[in-house]
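[step 3/7] inverse_fold.run input=structure_tokens len=199
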């Protein structure tokens, strides 16, 4: 089975310098263009048989554009939403830094942000998603997951069986990661590919 992890395109939150997380902002016009370029690229090079997506607007719009290009089934799953950032959702970054400053040395991985989830909670969610996909869709040739930077980083950590909190994987707008499961072997095909934006 091949797995594509795809981040959404640029959202309106990117333009107004707020913390997004569970705040639900739609794609910008540029974000929609990025999503169409990604969709054309995926349709030509790596068409999935199924798309699983976060229902948050920026991801659901990206997934819908991809689905239109591919024609395969699209399912939304609340577990694919971004890190639950609680009280930080939608706050301007400067305001968040004053109201909810990080503890010295950073927040321990097991302690959640007020009203949200911890880094450990996020990783557990990613582990559950990955295992569920591998179990429920065993035999599928290629599945695309359209989600968010934080969750995608946790999915990659889970796929690579890395410890929590040691490594973060960045993903640009409509960045694509591709992995493969071959019996007991886990293969990294490529990471954060954005060729489609520069052609």
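[step 3/7] decode complete -> sequence:
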């Amino acid at each position: 089975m091949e797995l594509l992890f795809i981040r959404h395109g640029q959202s309106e939150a990117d333009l107004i310098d707020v913390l997004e997380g569970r705040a639900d902002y739609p794609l910008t016009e540029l974000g929609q263009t990025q999503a169409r370029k990604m969709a054309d690229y995926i349709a030509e090079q790596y068409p999935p048989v199924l798309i699983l997506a976060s229902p948050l607007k920026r991801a659901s719009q990206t997934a819908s554009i991809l689905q239109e290009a591919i024609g395969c089934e699209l399912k939304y799953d609340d577990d694919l939403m971004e890190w639950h950032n609680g009280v930080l959702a939608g706050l301007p970054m400067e305001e968040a830094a004053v109201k909810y400053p990080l503890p010295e040395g950073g927040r321990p991985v097991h302690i959640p942000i007020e009203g949200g989830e911890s880094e450990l909670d996020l990783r557990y969610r990613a582990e559950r998603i990955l295992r569920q996909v591998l179990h429920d869709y065993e035999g599928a040739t290629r599945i695309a997951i359209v989600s968010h930077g934080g969750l995608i980083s946790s999915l990659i950590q889970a796929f690579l069986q890395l410890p929590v909190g040691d490594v973060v994987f960045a993903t640009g707008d409509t960045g694509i990661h591709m992995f493969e499961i071959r019996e007991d072997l886990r293969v990294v095909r490529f990471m954060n590919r954005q060729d489609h934006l520069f052609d």
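[step 4/7] annotate
The chain has a mean pLDDT of 96.
The two ends are 28 Å apart (CA to CA).
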